Request: fold
Amino acid sequence: MSSCVFSAPTWLETLQSHESICKKPSVFTKNCISADVAGMKLTWNNSMPSKQTGSSCKCRALEVEKNHAFLKGELFQLDDVIEAQQFDREILSAIFEVAREMETIEKKSRGNQILKGYLMATLFYEPSTRTRLSFESAMKRLGGEVLTTENAREFSSAAKGETLEDTIRTVEGYSDIIVMRHFESGAARRAALTANIPVINAGDGPGQHPTQALLDVYTIEREIGKLDGIKVGLVGDLANGRTVRSLAYLLAKYNDVKIYFVSPEVVKMKDDIKEYLTSKGIEWEESADLMEVASKCDVVYQTRIQRERFGERVDLYDEARGKYIVNRDVLSVMQKHAVVMHPLPRLDEITVEVDDDPRAAYFRQAKNGLFIRMALLKLLLLGW
Reply:
């Protein structure tokens, strides 16, 4: 082991000085706040002054540790799950570890009761099959109970004109956690600001779908074996697709990732995502050639052209629909290790002949949603 002593006028310069002297990046901890610099653990001398200027520090470079800083019984770092930007690499990796534990519970420990006595309310203002049922299955597989309303836009007090805030204040009185899907972007954030219990965004209009992005990244890691250095083709409705927006935010957490955008002109990826990726040093490229992109990528992530987002502009929907379809021809140019993913439901954008190919990962992807959502419910209600 090596050690060094140095002084620096600010914490930023302290870190830079340590990196220069020790030639090793680090994780440092001060007042129980961990800053992930690059994966090493740095122990500061106990006598370090608490001032943030004029500090004199002593450090010791230790062996690389892959153990997370999260201890059993500690509170989860997040109060709500609203957007993909909330997560960093360390939390993602730790969530995935819990999800793998949930796989074991689902397979071998029927009747698990760790969430016994807890109630989850699912409040869905838009139709859903996989998201709602996987959340409800997740809660029940962990021993909890579910209060549910389907199509709350029509069959709840929202139809009478009740505000979202009033609905949330009421529902939180009946439950311990709320899972909400809404037709308006930003609705989940409003709900989280109102509620005193955890809120999970299960999709807010064309905004975000963070739990879908979590299960997507989890699936990529399980299928490809890595997240750094991958190439991902996002195909279809990229303007309205909350799943691809959230996935792009999470992929930006990893190194040497390249993203290809393949879509009809009327549903191209919006500039805010492109600007975000650029700001994070993520290479991206727009292409009109699905075959070429599919031949390069580790993941072809196909999405549905969403009729419900076009309103009365049926002409624009007809212009976009059916332009990019994953079929046997696309499979023929894909690499053998690559996979096809889709958030589902699909229409005709992936032909059924693809289903039997081992690279068709979308139903395994849907099953992974159960494990991710079991993990999130456990973490939000009980902690690590």
